[in-house]
Amino acid sequence: PAMDYAGLAEAAAEKMELYRRDPGGWRGCRHTSEVSVSWRPSAEFAGNVYRGEGVVPASPRDVWECIKPVAGGPRTKWDQNVKDFEVVETISDTVSVCRTTTPSAFMRIISPREFVDVVLMKQYEDGTMLSAATNVEHPLCPPQPNFVRGFNYPCGCFCVPLPGEPHRTQLLSFFQTDLGGYLPQTVVDSFFPASIAGFYSNLTKAVKALEV
User: Fold this and answer.
1) How confident is the model at residue 107 (pLDDT cuts 50, 70, 90)?
2) Alpha-carbon torsion (53, 56, 61, 62), positive or negative
C-alpha cells in the first residue's frame, strides 16, 4: 500500500506543536551563549528527544532562508551534519520526500548515515515558520551501501518572530533520531547535545554572512 506522505507529514507537524506547548519533563544538558539544550525520553523510540532553544541575531526570513529544507539550499554549506540533501518526490507545495546524507562524525566513531524523510513546511498567522519531518520509506530510496540507514522520528524547527525585534528570531528545534548501527549509548548521548550546539553556532555564522 502506498504511504500517506501528506498525512505523515501533517502528524509530524502536530507532534511539533505538542512539544512546543509542553514544557514539562525537559532536563537541561548543554548551555552555550547561543542555545540551551534539554532532553527527555522519547515516546516514539528507545532514545531521547532533544530540544534546542536560542535566539538567532537575524530576521525570521533570513533564518528560514538558511534552514529551509530545499534542494540546492544553503544548508549543505553551513550545517556540518548535512553532507547532501535531495528531494526524491514533491508531494505538494509544502510536502516533499527527501534524502539526507551525513558525513562521519565524532572522530569517525559515527560512520556516514542516510535518512529518508517526509518534510512539511508551514507558516502560521503570526509569521512563525515550521519545518517538520519524520522517517518514511520510498521506492526510489533503497538503503545504499556505505551508509547506515538512520531514522528521524518527528522532529522540526520553529522560526518564531520576536515582537518588536525584527532582527532577532527565536529558534526552537526538536531532534529525535535513531542513528541506527551499533553505537554505544554513551556516544549517542554525547553526540546530540554537541551536535545541536554546533547547529546553532554554525547557523548564527551563516545568517551573519547573508547580511553582508
Assistant:
1) confident
2) negative
CB contact at 8 A, 121 and 69: yes
Give the residue carrying C-alpha cell 547535545. 193
What Å distances lie between residue 3 and 43, 121, 139, CA to CA? 22, 19, 10
Q: Please compute the mean of the pLDDT values over residues 34-41 and round it to a whole number.
A: 97
Give the three cell numbers for residue 99.
534524502
Residue 101 forms part of a structural domain = no
The answer as to whether 175 is a domain residue is yes
Q: Looking at the domain assignment, is residue 93 inside a domain?
A: no
pLDDT tens digits, residue range 79-106?
999 999 999 999 999 999 999 999 999 8
Query: What are 1's three cell numbers?
Result: 500500500
H helix or E strand, kind and range, residue 15: helix 5-21
- Give residue 159's domain range: 5-68+122-139+150-211
Pairing of strands 113-123, 148-149: parallel
What H or E segment, with its residue span, contains residue 194?
helix 185-211
Question: Which conformational region is residue 165 in: left (phi greater than 0), alpha (psi within -120 to 50 degrees), or beta?
Answer: beta
- Domain membership of residue 44 (yes or no) is yes
- The count of structural domains within the chain is 1
What's the confidence (pLDDT) of residue 83? Answer: 94
Q: In CATH, what number is assigned to the domain containing residue 129? A: 3.30.530.20
pTM above 0.85, yes or no: yes
